[in-house]
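Sequence only, no structure available. Ideas?
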Amino acid sequence: MLKDFSQVIREARSAKPLTISVAVAQDGEVLKGVKKAMARGLANAVLAGNRNLIRPLAEKLGLKDHYRIIHEPDDEKAALKAVELVRNKEAQILMKGLINSSNFLRAAPNPGKGLRSGRLLSHLTAFEIQGIRKLAFFIDGGINIAPSLAEKKEIPEGVKNKVI
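Reply:
I predicted one. Tokens follow.
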């Protein structure tokens, strides 16, 4: 069992780097996270959004290799493009950038372009809490507002089976 993020990072380094698809990537904090993942050899990235805003931020942060920019100045179209990259298996991780959550969450299940799998859409968050010797996990922090009993059962099953 993994007890902290340092163990997670060690395990992740043993696999090949994943590709992160960032929806509306013109956000300094998001790019800092991408840079950390890249520096640790965990990932490379595709940054969907306004190139004229992304490039100066990336340069300021020293983000140099293993990423490309897909220029799409319209936020909703950029989110759809980021989702499409995951759907087409050009990326394995979808990350929210500088876009309203409701717009981002509309892009993920978009008919024809989204990540619909016939299963309930959810997410998993991991926390490392000081003083506790194991990771804590939080499933579905607001995507499914009033799930039925069957949906409540499906949410952790989907996470367990890595269903997106």
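The chain has six helices and six strands.
Hope that gets you unstuck.
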